[in-house]
Amino acid sequence: MQKRSVADLKVGEKAVIESFSDQWMSLKLLEMGCLPGTEVCLHCKAPLGDPICLNVSGYCLSMRKSEAATILIEQ
Q1: Which of 31, 42, 63, 75 sits 20 to 30 Å CA-CA off 13?
Q2: What is the pLDDT of residues 10-69, one digit of tens each?
Q3: Which fold has domain 6-73?
Q4: Do residues 51 and 62 make contact, with C-beta atoms less than 8 angstroms apart?
Q5: DSSP characters for the chain?
Q6: What residue ranges do the domains of the chain occupy?
Q7: Does the global pTM surpass 0.85?
């Protein structure tokens, strides 16, 4: 079974970060507060679905959908 990622979330859906699939991108995401065990919520998507906006650690974080796909979430 394939792991779900933040890119798979629907608007308003919450999840907890489990790990990352891309080591280089994980460094960037960790610096922005996306730590394993942190709850994230998909706040909104751009009209064409990319980029997306997440609520994480008390602030809004915008990122590309390809970046969000590297953030694996707990099932």
Answers
A1: 31
A2: 999 999 999 999 889 889 988 888 899 999 999 999 999 899 999 998 899 999 999 999
A3: SH3 type barrels. (2.30.30)
A4: yes
A5: -PPPBGGGPPTT-EEEEEEES-HHHHHHHHHTT--TT-EEEEEEE-TTS-SEEEEETTEEEEE-HHHHTTEEE--
A6: 6-73
A7: yes
